[in-house]
Amino acid sequence: MAAKQKENKIEVKENGAFSYYITLQDSFDRLTEQLAELDCKDRRICIVTDSHVADLYLSEVKSYVEQSCRQVEEFIFPCGEQNKTLDIVRSLYEYLIQHEFDRHDLLIALGGGVVGDLTGYAAATYLRGIRFVQIPTTLLAQVDSSIGGKTGVDFDQYKNMVGAFHQPSLVYINTSILRTLPDDQFANGMGEVLKYGLIRDAGFYEWTIEHMGDIEERDTRVLEYMVERCCQIKRIVVEKDPTEKGERAILNFGHTIGHAIEKLKGFQLLHGQCVALGMVAAAYISWKRGYLDSDEFYEIRDMSVGFDLPITFDGLKSEDIVAATKKDKKMNAGKIRFILLKKMGHAYTDLTVTDEEMLEAVNSMNADLM
Fold it and tell me: CA 258 to CA 273: how far, in whole Å?
């Protein structure tokens, strides 16, 4: 296994200039120190979290935050994707206004992707933009959604249809959380971990396969390296394309069909589970186009099983899934920006994927047709 770097900070730049640090630690012990670097001693901070995460980490995190600022408030909303809405954002706006938060104060997103996306969007739009900090508490949020400044909420069950680009001022990752993460949430994050290797680093993808046992056993050093490598890959991509005008779109590998399944299932499946299904479908199309050989396709499909991710679904019509992709935010002039693999570790954007290709790929995963 590659040795973990001693440096525990990853510098993220925007347009060539420093933007923020991703700090990787195995506890919350250095949170006060990191917040102090944001010059918030005389500022107020509102910790935004959901009802589940609040019970687990809010008290501990608040004790560190209180040492770094003038006053700490907390805003707790019900957990679940169904609450990632403009109504919750409105309630957060009201809370901030009532507590007289100004544009020099900060928000902290303490939680998974739902909390991070919603808090980031509120920060991007409250008083035309205030600072916020990401403290991701799930594997998926640590390796993906907390990094890069994409924020947003769902609109009438259309995934992330309302959003803004707003970079965090700090991402503080406590990897020790992963050792006690529920199995389904850990698997949920592995969908995004596998994605990074497939789109950008074939060597890292093979590393995840070789270390499957250690990953599933939550080995501390292995998890630290895995999270750090994912953060580095995402940093490289978002630095080149911070507002998704080009290369950053490859991060949506598996998301087109994945989002369609996620929406049609009423968010009963976790995001990473749906991304895994979408990656299998995209790999299937890449295979049928001759970019991957059969061994590569079946490895991609079967490795999802190894990490407790689904490779089939039921209860949906394949035609409905294909139709739902047309309402995805990644449409471009009426065409879907579909991410395919030119080869392992090399993804690209394709505008020529047909409904027939998608339908064949979706049918191959539809358990009701097997």
Answer: 8
Among 149, 180, 145, which residue's Cα sits nearest to residue 27? 180
What is the residue whose two structure tokens read 């991060």? 251
> Rounded to whole angstroms, how far apart are CA atoms 204 and 209?
9
Six-digit token pair at 116? 């991070």
Give residues with Cβ within 8 angstroms of 257, minimum separation 6.
277, 278, 281, 282, 321, 325, 358, 361, 362
The answer to whether 12 touches 173, Cβ cutoff 8 Å, is: no
Residue that has been written with the tokens 């993808």 in this structure: 205
Span 77-123, pLDDT tens digits: 999 989 999 999 999 999 999 999 999 999 999 999 999 999 999 99
Residue 182 CA neighbour count, 13 Å, CB half: 8
Tokens of 21: 């640090």
Q: In whole angstroms, what is the distance from residue 331 CA to residue 319 CA?
A: 18
pLDDT per position as a tens digit, 316-359: 999 999 999 988 766 666 778 899 999 999 999 999 999 999 99
pTM: 0.92
- Distances in Å between the alpha carbon of 8 and those of 5, 109, 190, 203? 7, 21, 22, 22
| Inter-residue contact 187 to 309 (CB < 8 Å) | yes
